[in-house]
Amino acid sequence: MQQQIAGLARARNATPFMVVQAALAVLLAKISASSDVAVGFPIAGRGDPALDALVGFFVNTLVLRVDLEGDPTVGEVVAQVRARSLAAFEHQDVPFEVLVDRLNPTRSLSHHPLVQVMLAWQNFAGQDVETVLGDVSAMALTAETHTARVDVTFSLAERWTAAGEPAGIGGAVEFRTDVFDAATIEALVDRLAAVLAAMTVDPDQPVSGIDVVDAGEHARLDQWGNRAVLSAPVPVPASIPALFAAQVARTPQAGAVTCDGQTVTYAELDAASNRLAHLLVGHGAGPGHCVALLVPRSVEAVIAIMAVLKTGAAYLPMDPAHPDARIGFMLGDAAPTAAITTGDYAAHLIGSGVAVVRLDDADIEAQSDAALPMPAADDTAHIIYTSGTTGTPKGVAVTHHNVVRLFESLDIGLSLTPGQVWSQCHSLAFDFSSWEIWGALLHGGRLVVAPDEVARSPQDLHTLLLTEHVAVLNQTPSALAALTPAGLQSVATVVAGEACPAEVVERWAPGRLMINGYGPTETTVYATISAPLTAGVSVIPIGLPVPGAALFVLDKWLRRVPVGVIGELYVAGTGVAQGYLRRPGLTAARFVACPFGTNGARMYRTGDLVRWGPDGQLQYLGRADDQVKIRGYRIELGEVQAALAALDGVRHAVVVTREDHPGDRRLVGYVTGEVDPVDARSLLGAKLPPYMVPAAVVVVDELPLTINGKLDVRALPAPDYLDVDRYRAPSTPTEQLLASMYARVLGLQKVGVDDSFFDLGGDSLSAMRLISAVNTTLGANLAVRTLFDTPSVAGLSRQLGSTASTEEVLPVEILSTGTGTPVCCIHDGFGLSWPYRALAARLDCPMIGFNQVQADGVAAAGSVHEMAVAYADRIQAVSPGDAYRLLGWSFGGVVAHEVAVELQRRGCTVERLVLLDASYGANSIQSQDVMTESHIIEHVLRAGHVEVPAEAGPISYDVAQQLISDRHAIDVALPPKQLVEAMIRNVNHNQTLMRSHTPGHFGGDVVIFSAGRSTGDFDRPHSEIWRQFVGGDITAHTVDCTHHDMLNPDALGSYADRLASSLRGDVL
């Protein structure tokens, strides 16, 4: 090899080092999927003769940047390396630190600023250290630093015999063990040797012709990718109606489809679809034609789909939520012979020229329910439109065989058995729905259809899953994240449609079967399905090929890439669709010849970037083009951009995806010209489906460009997602709380009360999250549709029944704003957190009050522990995170301690727990009497200096109103009667809870402020009372006041600074 390298170097007027540099650049380009490669190399730095006799270290680092764009030949790469190396030598005296300073790359503590790979080369032929240093005695030692300075360093040296003959090339590789393992580095060295061998054999070949995958790895990739299926005999295929007919014969009276309490049997579904099919045949439905469906998810929709398939025609699903413009395009492009609809949806078809069949048409019942001839397996089953790069959607034609093969020999731990209950939650225009429908109906299962309003409400969907005993749940990861897994332990969960975050797997995988699927519409729902997922894994695989599919991860020259290397995924096999309806050119570009199968085999170019994991499963990494997936929908940015550019007043437009907050990807449009951003989004909403409308449109003076004339995406400004000129601040506690929840869900700094949730970038999935948070935090029972009707903070506030009154009582309210971790203040014995408002001016952190407000129909807590569990839920809903500060006075301190115990049990950190004169148990209750309305009213009157006659006896609410009027005490206001009643109910209930309460054990530190002038049992040192229930330190302070004065302004003046320091964690 050494001699072959030297021969190539001589032939190209280069050095062996330059040839090895070129080989390393080619290898790095192939394993990094990048044509732009930078390699560092050390140079002695002794170009000045004055340094010859000077002992010292003058080594500098040079950077060689190699451009492999355009598939150059080996000889051209060597020539490029030679020219750039010589140019680098000319500037070898420039200190590397100066180069870094001038280039000013983005700094990172995790890697070198300019290069991550180094190549050191030694070529002193026939010389050793003693010869070099003459009379000086020297010995070479290896420095065991155990520290890698860059990701990988190749230290190579040419070896020579005593006679000066070549003896090979040897060396070592230093690498970061947190990035690579030894096996990976050994494979890298073998690949480098293979590249050098190929380069020296044929210097005129293009670098694309060099294969870095050896024979053993090729065999492994063949096995993982299921290549054998391309040459295996194809079983006799069957159509969907044929398989369904066989199932009807087996279980005619079994339940087939359930929706809104209605269930039809297999026999009823068969007969109803036969009748509709006969009517459709009369409208020209048959093989080679299609029938449009404009119906919501329902039993009738499933009957309509089956009827269309029985005619031999393909069904063309159209979502009723799509704008008329898109529905009109699909009708014009697909040219269906008829359109099936129901109810008010028929209005969307007026003027289309398509025959309309209404599902409530009396003529359907008059048709025969006899079976029709079975369609062929190669007939088209459905046509689903996806986003198009040119701004025009494209219809994907999928055959019966494409669908049926999905379930053949499926071995994922999910049994397809009779009676199994499947959910159907997705739009019929989303190909995920065909997996849901046929997974149930072709195997004797029961399909539970979730109506739109149920599917969009996590609470309602959860209830439906439990009520119907659903066994197989199919969801996108975003939708699954909004659901709670509680009570669904026996539900097998299938996620697909978008990348699945690890946190979703952490919540859902334990205790149940959970699998992750992947597949473009062009490969019929799934091309891969993962092995059962487990928690604790950071990379969620998309899995192995489904039956009948063959997978190939290729580079741009259609060569297979090694394991772990990024490439584009190509899918071949029986799931590959027919192509795009009436788009032969586009079909030919995406459905290409497969070089790995028999003659005539095709494979689909997905445009998705993936890599093989060491376990043989694929890992999804993103898109190779401008196509993106957001919330399960595949979107061509070009289509959205074309629609935006077509608006009046827009000169130039571009649409990009932004992830300004981790995990929250959004479309954002940027335009130049004269256009109102709000109007632009509104106009796009009339042309595009909701999921394709940008979350924000930003007007800029000009679009930023790079020096190469390309769009500089990084220079585009971040959108505000709100109109600051129209901002109106929240004015009530309800509005403040709602605005904070809007901001948190949308990832904004602030939200005004008039800002629309959807104009700020909200969508249906984030709407579910918001309503779930509102219902959990405020004890409300809002439906998701409420937000669509009243999307502003002010509007939603009115739906909660709140008013502008500052006295309204909510389960949670913002007591004060500020910075840092909020202090969660637990209500007193009356169930109110209002007394803590006196602290607002003395603390610089946010304060959130938790009040004792019972939701309708929900039983009161049966113990302090039950109350603490409920409040822990509220706290985590209001302030998601894992660190909390808790404050409680009196009874609130007892509850705060129990909340701290519960939060610790959940794995959260309680940074601070501060108790204000809090004790527990029966001895802490100063009065054994039942509290009445009169007690509270007398207290209010005396506090307002209204004299209460001694002979008055118990004072009712009405008598108190009369006393205030008689005394002309205009500054005195009684609490609302309902509030008084709630306070009485709360304090009596809480006294009952206290008598039987034994605190749990809290493992952290506690700070206690005790009232020095308390009477009775309150004189016991609180630090002694709480000691057995606190694992950490207890810091105790005494305040010169009574128990009831702890939060009065005078008392606070004496200890507020110490309280603030305690909440900050200062050492006192």
UniProtKB/TrEMBL annotation:
The Carrier domain is annotated at 729-804
Keyword check for Phosphoprotein = yes
SMART domains reported for this sequence: PKS_PP, PKS_PP_betabranch, PKS_TE
**GO biological process annotations for this chain's record?**
amino acid activation for nonribosomal peptide biosynthetic process; lipid biosynthetic process; secondary metabolite biosynthetic process
Tell me which Gene3D superfamilies the record gives.
Answer: 3.30.300.30, 3.40.50.980, alpha/beta hydrolase, Chloramphenicol acetyltransferase-like domain, Luciferase, Domain 3, Nonribosomal peptide synthetase, condensation domain
Key word Transmembrane helix present in the record?
no
Q: Which cofactor does it need?
A: pantetheine 4'-phosphate
Any GO CC annotation of this UniProt entry: cytosol
Instruction: Identify the keywords attached in UniProt to this record, alphabetized.
Output: Phosphopantetheine, Phosphoprotein
Question: What GO MF terms are annotated?
Answer: catalytic activity; phosphopantetheine binding
Write down the PANTHER family for this protein, in alphabetical order.
NONRIBOSOMAL PEPTIDE SYNTHETASE, PLIPASTATIN SYNTHASE SUBUNIT B
The text of the family note is: Belongs to the ATP-dependent AMP-binding enzyme family.
The name under which this protein is listed is: Carrier domain-containing protein
| Organism whose genome encodes this protein | Mycolicibacterium confluentis
Lineage, highest ranks first:
Bacteria, Bacillati, Actinomycetota, Actinomycetes, Mycobacteriales
